[in-house]
Design brief:
646 residues, globular, seven-stranded mixed beta sheet, 21 strands
């Protein structure tokens, strides 16, 4: 029998208005850094977070490496070179603006975090003399030991340090509040952003936030194609509550999006078909450069990009002959293996060569200091492995010098995914931005995973701080505008509607999420066809018009879960609209058309879409619309370059 008791006071009838100069939506890594930057600029800052800011967000529990510290004193790669490599790796379908910010300011943010109390150096001299350590600065590096632009970090210390700095600066933090919509001038779609609305996840109280400028720092979408009603906490790579609320509210407000048609074959999921992400070896990231062995101990050859077998582990951390540098996972030039593996394993080829399942990541053959730094830092500091792997395995007696880790992954075992099971992973679509990280909606900025082609921890921190600076400038030169009462009242009706339905004849959040996922698999899977996409769009519209009015929530927690699924539905509609807009296949977007037209004029173009009063408006821009990276960055950031870091 369902227990309807609720341990918190219910405040559905209460409304609270909070004013600020700068409103930060989302308290993950990007949100914290955005709020810190705006507060340092002298602005009154309000940060609103669905969870608890001290540990919330995709990076809240930790991180093992910082990819793009191109300006650190040991780096042999410039921000320009590194950003161009990122663009090259994706045939131009990448965010040159945000990744140049990451490469140009990423190390600055590490120094910031160090001053806040985060740990970025081997201050205890645990790894003195190791190939990956610079003994003068005590910085530690990952992957490419020659060029030294990716740092190993003690990421579990970062989020608490940011939270402490927010408190020191006087930022108002409102935890456990879900933001539900953006408010615009006169309530008009596409009008200047004047704030947002939200509800408390425990009491249901309604909030109205009024601000001169706002920054969306919320997560990328998830649970669009993959969902298991039996395993709701293990459906995607990021935390359960990170599902793309910002994308949905931005779309409803009239913001522009790009690359939303991009979706990759599902890899990082445990929605009933696979094992939890990072539950075992990941050769191109956390476990780099461990060997992979089969069930008999036979090692899979490890090769450089040219197919040269690297028997000496030390060679795996150096570029190949003629290669200036390489990035995590093998870019710029992806490795070519004698047998496709360990990063590009071809399952059928492996079987033909006589390898036997299961496969294992073998840390026992690594040099002692490499094994210690992988197990103690890359595993111990990565938020997704710190507790489930490092702590739990150690507690049970796992010794990386003696034991091996069973590996799972697409194509390696029977737990692989179906072609129609996709994810928004690896530089996915998101808000379209300019050189100030502003959207097309005046007063609305964006950072971190909300940006198109978003990436990692360093990207979130750098773009968050950058957006905070520019949003603060906007707030300094603009007045606080009044929000529209009619827009707020309409949102309150939408938000609270599920509480009033009959619980015995209504639909729950899990059922609706599963229906959306099945619809996306059936009509927007691996190969796109106009006819299928249009049917899928009709089906999603039916859910919006006929199913959402039948949904029910018992309490604020279930209401939040439902509102998240409503946002997943909106994101699914964006994805199908973007897929309809792109008429040709594009490999870099993992976008395959079964009915592609012959005209390839959009081959090197971003398709930017938005909605206005129910009509989908699209335009095309060149993938390199941002122009010269260094020149344009310096055009918009002279004060920062001069040394004014606020």
């Amino acid at each position: 029998m369902y227990d309807n008791a609720w341990p918190y006071p219910l405040e559905y009838d209460r409304e609270e208005i909070i004013n600020a100069d700068v409103l930060v939506l989302g308290g993950g890594v990007a949100g914290c850094m955005a709020a810190i930057a705006a507060a340092r600029a002298g602005q009154k800052v309000l940060l609103v977070e669905k969870g608890a800011t001290k540990r919330s967000g995709a990076g809240g529990s930790g991180c093992d490496h910082w990819e793009s510290a191109a300006t650190n004193p040991c780096s042999k790669v410039t921000p320009e070179e590194l950003t161009q490599a990122m663009l090259h790796d994706n045939d131009g379908f990448n965010n040159g603006i945000s990744h140049y910010i990451e490469c140009r300011e990423g190390y600055d943010r590490l120094l910031d975090i160090e001053k806040m109390g985060g740990k970025i150096r081997d201050t205890e001299d645990e790894f003195v003399g190791a190939d990956f350590r610079d003994d003068e600065t005590k910085l530690m590096f990952a992957y490419d030991y020659e060029n030294k632009f990716t740092l190993r970090i003690w990421g579990t210390t970062f989020k608490p340090a940011m939270h402490k700095e927010l408190r020191r600066l006087g930022v108002q933090i409102l935890d456990r509040v879900m933001v539900t919509s953006l408010l615009t001038e006169k309530g008009a779609q596409g009008g200047r952003c004047v704030g947002a609305t939200g509800i408390h996840t425990r009491t249901g109280k309604f909030y109205i936030f009024n601000a001169k400028s706002s920054i969306i720092c919320m997560s990328r979408p998830a649970r669009v194609w993959l969902f298991s009603a039996e395993l709701p906490g293990l459906c995607e790579f990021r935390p359960t509550q990170c599902i793309g609320d910002g994308h949905a509210m931005g779309w409803r407000a009239g913001a522009e999006f790009t690359m939303m048609e991009k979706s990759v074959r599902a890899e990082f999921s445990a929605s009933g078909r696979s094992y939890p992400p990072y539950g075992a070896g990941n050769n191109h990231n956390t476990w780099y450069a461990a060997s992979i062995i089969d069930s008999r101990g036979k090692e899979i050859p490890y090769a450089d990009r040219d197919g040269n077998i690297l028997n000496d582990v030390k060679d795996r951390f150096r570029p190949a002959k003629g290669q200036k540098f390489f990035m995590k996972g093998g870019g710029i030039d992806f490795p070519k293996y004698e047998i496709e593996g360990p990063e590009t394993l071809s399952f059928s080829k492996m079987m033909e060569e006589g390898y036997k399942l299961p496969f294992y990541a073998d840390l026992t053959t690594l040099p002692e200091e490499e094994r210690r730094v992988i197990w103690g830092m890359m595993v111990g500091q990565e938020g997704k492995t710190n507790v489930p792997i490092y702590r739990n395995y150690t507690k049970e007696g796992f010794d990386p010098a003696k034991h091996v880790l069973q590996c799972y992954g697409t194509g390696w075992t029977s737990a692989s995914f179906l072609p129609q099971e996709r994810q928004l992973f690896g530089l996915p679509g998101g808000f379209f931005n300019d050189w100030t990280l502003s959207t097309n909606i005046q007063g609305l900025y964006v950072a971190g995973d909300a940006l198109y082609a978003s990436d990692c921890y360093g990207h979130a921190a750098a773009t968050g701080y950058y957006a905070g600076r520019h949003a603060a400038k906007y707030a300094l030169s603009n007045d606080l505008l009044q929000w529209d009462r009619q827009q707020v009242d309409k949102e309150k009706v939408r938000v609270y509607a599920p509480l009033k339905n009959d619980p015995h004849s209504s639909i729950g959040w899990k059922e609706l999420n599963m229906a959306i996922a099945k619809t996306m698999q059936n009509y927007c899977g691996e190969v796109k066809y106009d006819d299928l996409l249009k049917v899928g769009l009709v089906r999603l519209k039916e859910y919006e018009e006929n199913i959402i009015p039948q949904t029910f929530a018992y309490n604020p927690h279930e209401l939040v879960r439902l509102l998240e699924v409503f946002d997943i539905l909106t994101v699914s509609q964006i994805i199908i609209e973007a897929s309809l807009a792109r008429k040709i296949s594009v490999d870099a977007l993992y976008f395959k058309r079964g009915d592609a037209i012959e005209d390839e004029s959009s081959k090197d173009k971003l398709i930017v879409i938005k909605q206005h009063e129910g009509e989908i408006i699209k335009r095309e821009v060149s993938v390199d619309f941002f122009g010269d990276l260094k020149e344009n960055y310096e055009k918009y950031n002279q004060d920062y370059i001069r040394g004014d870091r606020s």
